[in-house]
Write a structure and sequence with these properties.
globular; 16 strands; about 290 residues; twelve-stranded antiparallel barrel; Porin; 1 helix; mainly beta
Length: about 290
C-alpha cells in the first residue's frame, strides 16, 4: 500500500478560466475577509493546479503509514516560483521510506524528484486552473532494500483544479511514470511503466477549515526477472481534514490528517496520512 507518488485529466477550454475575482464581483462567491486567507495547499494525495505566487515559498511534509504491513514513508517537498515569471515553478521532493518487503532493512532515503511545473491555464484566483508537471526521478534509493526503482526515471502529471461553487472545489490528476532501466533486489533490469489517476473534493466549512475526500488509482510495474515485469493495481479513498493558522507576518501553517482506506484490489488495507505545510513570503511583492 501507499506507494503514493506526488502524481483523468479534464482538459477544459481556456475560455473557462475566467477570473475568479469576476465571480466574486458578481456575488456568486462571497469573498472571505481580507485577514482570513483561504487554504490552497496541495491535497494530501492529489496535486492541485496552483503554482506558488511571486515571492512565496512552501515547505511541505507528509507521512504515510500502513497499519497492516507497517510500511511507512516521510516526504519533504519545497516549492519555489521563478521570480521572473511565477507561471514557472521549481520544486524538489526527498522521501525517507521503510519497505515492508525487506524486513530488517531499516529506513533510508528514496528516489529524489526534481520537478518543473508550468501554469498553463488560470491560477489560484480563477475558476479553472491547469498546470502540467514533469519530474526527473533520481536513483538515490537503494533498490536492494526496496527504497527505489534502481534507475533514473521521468514522471508526467496533469493536475486540473475546478471551482464548482463558493464551498466546493474539485481537483483532478492523470499521470505516468517511466523508468527505462529499473532494477529489482537481485539486480535484474527491465523497463517499467506506471500510471495514476486521482480526484478530490474540497469542502470549505470556513476559509481556514476544509473537509476532504480523495480517490486515487495506481497501476505500477515491478521488475520480476530480466526484461520481465509484473503489474499491480491499487485504489484508495482518503477522507481527511485540514486547517490553517494565518500569522501577521504573512506565514500560513496548515496541518492535516487523513485515513487512507483500500477499495477494490486494495480492500483490507488502511493507514494514516499526516500533513504539515508552512508557506511564507521570502521577498516583498512587486510594486504596483
Amino acid at each position: 500500500m501507499l506507494r503514493m507518488r506526488n502524481q483523468y485529466c479534464l482538459l477544459l477550454a481556456a475560455a473557462l478560466a475566467c477570473p475568479f475575482d469576476a465571480l466574486l464581483a458578481q456575488g456568486s462567491v462571497p469573498q472571505p475577509p481580507a485577514d482570513t486567507p483561504k487554504i490552497q495547499d496541495n491535497s494530501f494525495l492529489i496535486e492541485e493546479a496552483y503554482n506558488q505566487e511571486f515571492g512565496v515559498v512552501q515547505h511541505i511534509q507528509a507521512f504515510t503509514r500502513n497499519w497492516q504491513t507497517h510500511e511507512w514513508q516521510y516526504t519533504f517537498t519545497q516549492e519555489w516560483p521563478i521570480d521572473l515569471d511565477p507561471r514557472h515553478q521549481l520544486s524538489y521532493s526527498i522521501p525517507i521510506t521503510h519497505s515492508a518487503d525487506f524486513p530488517g532493512s531499516g529506513a533510508g532515503i528514496g528516489d529524489i524528484a526534481l520537478n518543473y511545473r508550468y501554469q498553463l491555464i488560470g491560477s489560484g484566483k480563477t475558476a479553472v486552473a491547469f498546470a502540467p508537471r514533469v519530474s526527473a526521478l533520481l536513483p538515490t534509493g537503494d533498490s536492494t532494500k526496496g527504497r527505489g526503482a534502481g534507475g533514473a526515471g521521468v514522471q508526467f502529471q496533469l493536475p486540473l483544479s475546478v471551482v464548482v461553487n463558493r464551498k466546493l472545489v474539485t481537483h483532478w490528476n492523470a499521470g505516468a511514470t517511466i523508468t527505462p532501466a529499473a532494477k529489482n533486489a537481485n539486480g535484474d533490469k527491465a523497463a517499467t511503466h506506471g500510471y495514476n489517476l486521482g480526484q478530490s473534493f474540497i469542502w470549505t466549512l470556513q476559509p481556514r477549515l476544509n473537509l476532504m475526500l480523495e480517490t486515487v488509482f495506481f497501476s505500477d510495474e515491478n521488475v520480476f526477472t530480466r526484461d520481465d515485469t509484473q503489474r499491480s493495481n491499487s485504489i484508495f479513498m482518503n477522507p481527511g481534514i485540514r486547517w490553517a493558522y494565518n500569522l501577521k507576518s504573512g506565514m500560513q501553517i496548515v496541518p492535516g490528517i487523513g485515513v487512507p482506506v483500500g477499495v477494490g484490489p486494495s480492500t483490507g488495507e488502511a493507514g494514516i496520512f499526516l500533513y504539515f505545510s508552512i508557506e511564507h513570503p521570502y521577498r516583498k511583492p512587486r510594486s504596483q
